[in-house]
Design goal:
Strand order of the largest sheet: 1-2
Order of helices and strands: HHHHHEE
Number of strands: 2
Structural class: mainly alpha
Number of domains: 1
Number of helices: 5
Oligomer: single chain
Amino acid sequence: MTQAINDNATDGIGLGRPATQEFDLPNNLINGTFQSTPFWRFGDDFNAALFACACQMSQAGLTEYFPDRGVNYGIMDLSNDKTFEEYQNAYNEFIKIITKKGEAGKFYFGIVPYQLNGRAIICEGAVSKF
């Protein structure tokens, strides 16, 4: 990150996506605990990243905070190979449902149903004709 700024390749570095993986990332960067962000497995696939970040933020909202567990407790760790594979499978199935509903003239959107404490966060309905 520092080299990209020093080389004038960028004016700054976005922390939005990495911060959904590590909710205390900005603080850890400022106090020197971390020197960089966690590896982001989605690369430039912004659609997959959007769904993953939304899922992590939902997990955070659905998980009661206890200081002794830390702020990242209950949030999927996408740096873990098994977790990443399980999430990718859930994401792929979710995209299939969105596609099928769209082909039927309906919208379907929500949070990928992965580690949401048994909750479903979905919005669906008919698409009006224009």
